[in-house]
Amino acid sequence: MNTAMKELKKVGRELTLLMNTAALLGWDQETLIPEKAIPERAEQLALMEGISHAKLTDPKVGDLLDKLGADEKSSSGNENLSDEDRAYIRVFYRNYHRASCLPSDLVEEMARASSLGQSVWVQARKENDFGKFAPALEKILGLNREAGRLINVGDHPYDSFLDEYEPGMRKAELDVTFGALKEDLKSLVKRIKDAGQVEMGFLKRDYPEELQEKFGNYILKELAYPLDRGRLDVSTHPFTTTLGNHDVRITTRYGEPNPFSSLFSIIHEAGHGLYELGFSDEIAGNILAEGTSLGLHESQSRTWENMIGRSLPFWEKYYPEAQKTYGNALSDISLETFYKGINAVKPSLIRVDADEVTYSLHVILRYELETALFEGTLSVNDLPAAWNAKMEELLGIRPDSDANGVLQDVHWSVGLLGYFPTYALGNLYGAQFMDKAYKDVPDLDDQVRKGNHAVLLEWLRENIHKHGSAFTASELCVNVTGKPLDASYFTQYLNKKYGEVYGL
Amino acid sequence: MNTAMKELKKVGRELTLLMNTAALLGWDQETLIPEKAIPERAEQLALMEGISHAKLTDPKVGDLLDKLGADEKSSSGNENLSDEDRAYIRVFYRNYHRASCLPSDLVEEMARASSLGQSVWVQARKENDFGKFAPALEKILGLNREAGRLINVGDHPYDSFLDEYEPGMRKAELDVTFGALKEDLKSLVKRIKDAGQVEMGFLKRDYPEELQEKFGNYILKELAYPLDRGRLDVSTHPFTTTLGNHDVRITTRYGEPNPFSSLFSIIHEAGHGLYELGFSDEIAGNILAEGTSLGLHESQSRTWENMIGRSLPFWEKYYPEAQKTYGNALSDISLETFYKGINAVKPSLIRVDADEVTYSLHVILRYELETALFEGTLSVNDLPAAWNAKMEELLGIRPDSDANGVLQDVHWSVGLLGYFPTYALGNLYGAQFMDKAYKDVPDLDDQVRKGNHAVLLEWLRENIHKHGSAFTASELCVNVTGKPLDASYFTQYLNKKYGEVYGL
User: Which pTM does this prediction carry?
Assistant: First the structure.
């Protein structure tokens, strides 16, 4: 191997090990840490962050990347490198550029603004007072505009942020994709509303937490989540975290109002986890062994959660076990009633509680508002009114308060701009990939009906997981499905599924 | 504060945070890690080790220590420093000197020899073939002799190693202390043997693991172990580890042949943990917030385990609860029979299974043999015969095999020389401190009888814990008890307790 490449990979390996170590600090903090140890844990995490940053932005790394002819086009000029090495350099360069292009005083000011922003947001939400949060948001937007100019990716200043979570994605493309999606979803939501609601009363019955835990663990094993390469634990918010090639841990929470949300969280996080556990041996433990974008990551979790875990074939297999587990709560509920109930669609104010159909509309709302804020075509002071008007336009309901409207999400308060779109992109990628999976495996529903989930997992591994970040999400999409991202796969899937559920 | 002092403390703080982080990696590996993640965990630990070593041996640190007038005598020449700062510099200098005085090729060779030594030892023990292990041990001894010369602490080459675990302790002092202890213990063991054995049959009854767990957790709470600053988990070998000022975790194991060993492990590790949780706020989180020596650490665990946890007043309080927990297994056993049974003395081949009386003889045997090996007055090839002869001399029994004799412990195979003595020193320090505690708190037994363990804990905190490493164990011993270490406190304690148990 090329000496510079070898040296770069040594640094990259250390960065991965540091990231894994920080992930353990974070995982432990969310699951097991003794209460009084939490403040000091922040110091431990900050030190890991500092060591990683110093290692990544070491001038030696810049020299190595120069030697390897790195640029955003993945060392295309360097003929001596393998495709994998080029991909490695592309990802490394991206990380290096993002970490080193901002002056440290700007980075510190952004960190302060985020930290302050979050605490002000908590207070503003509690007091239902957007005015309290507005100056902090104004400040964050200003700093991010400056940072965006320096990061300087894409044609639109918003692209610098979008690209952080969704490498290669641009605002111009999203405008088109989300524009089409929005109209289709609005129309479907309206037809569902006109059809009348399905039976959901059985979800209010008693489903003891220990039975939820038992059933959740049963389903996790059925999905063949490898418990010698991961764990399932409990935390306040469900998440997935990677502590090593063979150590991907997921969490869930019990005791939600909806008794099946613990289960769907397990399936959702297992989807993320199976992606992280599916990288090929060639890239395992190096910098390419990461999900290629947040949108693609979310496609894996949502495919398992919604397209499999909330499908009729899945419950044809597992509903008898659910009835056995929960006894009286489900004994008089038919499979069909159960299936429809767990897929009920109902416009609601809060994104994280939204169903599969309305969820993407919550995301599009945020996307349209944050791009307008970023461009300056919407002022911060006009944001609450714009939010409420858009809720009415997209979902036909109006927030009763800013706390249940514009103040509901933490993201903007900590400077996460360009992040929201990835939630909806997950749905779109998922549907487009699954369309191809059904073409490649025509009896996939039968396999799900038999609990033979290895068939889909194998397909996902071979087509998506094994590559890690070697291809961008757009590249993968074209390579696997033959077409660029197209929202119509998702709307076709929804129209078919919810046409049946609501008899449209 | 002095600028150099401030800079040194910044480095020290980072070293502590790195040590805590490595401790989490280690704790997780022993308790929860998914099986297949273990090999990569070693890489993560090695990276933490490497980063810490580079930080500690940075020439900048040497300059700071020079500026502060550091030497083994704790900057005695520098009049501008507080006592605490002098202690800080003394400990920092010690760590710095040990980390930087050995050339890196010797360090690497020692690491290789230890790694090889351990795997050869595993094989040799399995095959009961000391000859297989002998060359590896010879190599390790040679490298350690060289390292000892370079570390260059004390008058005897063995002192360089002893001092690593027991700062300030010297072979000359140990020879005297252990010499006296040996004769007293031999005599006591003989008298016990002549007295005939106590009733122990009830220990073979059924004590289900879930009840052991329940009772163990109950006792841990009774000892006021703060579970908002620590945890109790399960691992193959019980241990205590410090992950932060407010995060000290202990472990135990269930399912031993002796049904009470899980409990005594909990009490033992809680003793270590309470020490680590008792440092004063002034030193918390800095380099002085560590046990001052392994011997002193062991004194804390053994005091709680043996002098409290195996005492009659303790069981006067808790035996009714034990009877309630275990039902039939203890219903016909009197408190007195129980108390005597859990304190039974019986010479045995294996150190880790030894009782309170014979344990120190196992340690003295290893001490005498390893110093002789180190000096060259005993050759490696003669070691098994010397071991067996000494077992006969000290304990009156002869190993049936090398696997149950000279090959039983891992320590020598990984180059841990000078470590064994600390196990016995723990007993000695413990007894000498407790003699003073009983003088200061004459009704201590009554307090134990009432389950009021805060009284002893408070005494230990005030006299020992709060100081961390600000004083050496010898200094603490003189400061608290008014006298240097004296083995007769321990033998007096044993003579009294076992005189009663065995009616001598």
Answer: 0.94
